[in-house]
Design a protein that fits this description.
Arc Repressor Mutant, subunit A; mainly alpha; two-stranded antiparallel ribbon; 44% helix
């Protein structure tokens, strides 16, 4: 399996500018502000990666909805309380995620996560930020596309259909 390198130097520069955007949201000028903003940015980037690789071709609402699922899992005690851990959740072996066993399929599909579409990446970052504002999927913690029918979907309640994705609670 290829090594994971989702953020290129160009994207690191963009992260730097996003950091300053978010840092202005905190009026307290202390070292703690840097830590809080850095943690928020890390969470935001993990959500943006999930949006980019899981819903890049969806509408803005569809991407927003995928970001909501990540955050709904963060808020749910059954899942990790960190967006990055939610996105990477799944069994591991020999230091690598087991192929096709992760909660978010892009993370363990065996393909490297390279961001190649700058416009889509920046939209994913914006939609990740929007995901914090309003839950558009009614608390959904699961989703899948119309192309598949996982066993768990029969046991859950459908909350919304957005584009090619069905959302469940």
């Amino acid at each position: 399996m290829a090594s994971r390198a989702p953020v290129t130097p160009l994207h690191r520069l963009r992260l730097f500018f996003i950091f300053f955007y978010f840092s202005n949201l905190f009026p307290i000028y202390t070292k703690r502000r840097f830590v809080v903003v850095f943690c928020l940015m890390e969470q935001l980037m993990c959500i943006a990666l999930a949006i980019y690789f899981e819903a890049r071709g969806e509408s803005s609402l569809g991407q927003w909805a995928v970001g909501n699922v990540v955050l709904n899992r963060v808020r749910d005690p059954r899942y990790p309380s960190d967006a990055c851990l939610v996105v990477k959740q799944g069994p591991w072996s020999a230091g690598l995620p087991i192929r096709h066993k992760c909660q978010f399929s892009f993370y363990c599909d065996g393909k490297p996560e390279y961001v190649f579409d700058d416009r889509a990446w920046m939209k994913a970052v914006r939609m990740a930020g929007m995901s914090y504002t309003l839950d558009v999927v009614g608390g959904a913690t699961h989703y899948h596309t119309h192309k598949v029918s996982p066993d768990w979907s029969a046991e859950m309640n459908l909350t919304r259909v957005v584009g090619n994705h069905l959302f469940f609670k």
